[in-house]
Amino acid sequence: MFYGATGVGSPVAGRLTDRMGARRAVALDQVLVAGALVVGALFPVYPVLLAGAVVAGFGYALTNAGTNLAVSVAVPVRGHGVALATKTAGVPVLVAVSAPLAAAAGEAFGWRAVYLATVPVVLLVAAAALWVLPDGRSPRRTDPAAPVRVLPRGFLWFPVGAFCLVAGSQPLYSWTVAYLHEVGGLELPVAGSVTAAGSVAAVVAMVVVARRSDRVAAGRTAGGSRIPAVVTLCVGTAAGEALLVAGTAAGVPVMVAGVVVATVAQLSAIGLMHAAVVAAAPHAVGRASGVTMAGYYVGALVGAPVFGAVVDATGGYVPAWTMSLALVLCGAATFTRCRAVGSGVSSDRTGGASDGVAPRRSRIRGAAPQRVPRGRNAAGG
């Protein structure tokens, strides 16, 4: 339900983010999460917990769009790849750190105590977002110099590509432990360590690949300058999954290589995808992020259960990994259609200077910058 709410709510959250600004969007998410935690702890019945997951899922959609918007305003264009990859890498790192801690705390004190203890932390993050993040909201419609906040023609290829990539790669995080255990014969703790090692390697690779992408994209304004790398990484993800298929016959070393290769390539592709989205629609970052993440989270929602259904129906993992491989290759083919999306659109934003850096005063208090962007609007690109 959480992923479903994030996916369905992402287009609306993206529009709201463009209107309310990055810092308000992220702060609102944290307030929604805090409310869901308190209500869930006080009224621990299934319908309330389910509603809390929906509310928190929609809030997460606000943070996805809000953090992308914040980066687009506060970081120079030449650094978008590294900044957005680092932001994306924070999720698996935080999960790796918080999951065992939360489980241990829940075992010791109960899950309600964990919920309530998390609330002050969440509210502190909300306050920090209001204080630190830039604004970046859309200008009023009465401003004749403001660019029109619409998506460029052909932008819907981005959510389709995101859906295919994530639907085909989500099983890497949901099923590899079971696969390594059932097919490879590894003990569950060892299988879990292999997947964790793949994620750690991927976090490092994300930043390295993004830095290289920033150098290649330097001086270019269209999102297409990053698309070849995204496509290559999708193919790399499919190659890793091909190794997982081959590993059923070739043995554990090939399986482990497949897990590492596929995880590194997939997370690197996701990090660069955000940078390509921002570059393709610099005047509508919130809306572009929301539409893309709708495809992303619908893919995350259906990928793992469909994979499991195929395993159950066929009695083996080879057909399921083959299906995943085909989906990822479809994502690669779809992303090739994105190369021309936003071409000719200036990266100037009303929320920041021409190099993507917000004036210092607007980073803290959101005062409107004095410079007016010179670029054409996204619809005219």
- Largest sheet, strands/sense/barrel: none
Low-confidence stretches: 142-146, 349-381
Mean pLDDT: 81
What does the overall shape look like?
globular
Number of helices: 14
Secondary-structure class: mainly alpha
Radius of gyration: 21 Å
Strand percentage: under 5%
* Helix/strand order: HHHHHHHHHHHHHH
**CA(first)-CA(last) distance:** 37 Å
- Can you give the helix content as a percent range? over 70%
Strands, total number = 0
In short:
The protein is mainly alpha-helical and 381 residues long. The protein is 74% helix and 0% strand.
Key attributes of the depicted protein:
disordered C terminus; 0% strand; 381 residues; 14 helices; globular; mainly alpha
What does this structure look like?
The protein is built from 14 helices and no strands. Mean pLDDT is 81; it is low at 142-146 and 349-381. By secondary structure, the protein is mainly alpha-helical. The protein has helices spanning 2-20, 22-42, 46-74, 80-109, 111-132, 157-169, 171-174, 176-182, 188-217, 227-250, 252-280, 285-314, 318-336, 360-365. It is globular and about 55 Å long.
